Amino acid sequence: MARATTDLILDWSDERARGIAAENLFLDESLEERKASITRLRAGLGTCKLGQLDAENALRGKFRVDCDKGWLNVTLTLAPLQPPRVQFLEVNAGRPPSEALKQSAEAVAKAIATGARDLRLAPRLNRRDLSATLESTRLVYGSCKLSDAIEGDGVAKARFMLECDRGPLELDLSLEEGRIASATFTQSMDATCIP
Fold it and tell me: Is residue 179 over pLDDT 80?
């Protein structure tokens, strides 16, 4: 089903969408809304191909569609029918982060251990609040280092994986005029338990 879903994402056809969808797929987001959303995410990524499938079980999994200028992360759940049908579909796009985004993400990862004093912050981001967030993150996860970009526009915002002493963590980062405007942490969906 990953191949059929990728084919749909890369070359949308309403008929193809109806052919792989379970009855409930278009209840929370209509076929037209999904088509528009996926078309928007797909724009400018160039030629794409199916990457590796990470199956959680026989009916649920994630896969990446690698493109010339970025990628698409796809999560799907199949309805237990014969043949299986897609009952949940989530697509997120990512583009390689700019050097400024990458350097800022590395600085935030380092600041988990050292504090926020050396970070270049946008005026609206409160250094004291960020320091408290960094400290609580350090207490739970230990020190962290930057890993892969998961999604983002490549210029002003991105979500990164952090590899930490006590498990993976995700960093959502946004920049304004080259300064950190927001930095939030969430437990990685790939984490097996909270440390």
Answer: yes
pLDDT in tens, 58-73: 899 999 999 999 999 9
Q: 128 with 102: CB under 8 angstroms?
A: no
Confidence (pTM): 0.78
Distance (Å, whole) CA 42 – CA 9: 8
Minimal CA–CA distance to 22: which of 75, 89, 73? Answer: 89
Look up residue 109 and give its two tokens.
């990862």
Q: What is the dihedral of CA 49, 50, 52, 55, to 10 degrees?
A: 170
Are 116 and 136 within 8 A, CB to CB?
A: no
How far, in Å, CA of 73 to CA of 84, rounded? 21
The beta-strand segments (E) located in 5-156 are 48-57, 60-67, 70-79, 85-94, 144-152
Angle of helix 31-42 versus helix 2-10 axis, rounded to 10: 80
Phi, psi of 72 (to 5 degrees): -125, 130
Domains of the chain (ranges; CATH) run: 2-94 (3.10.450), 99-187 (3.10.450.50)
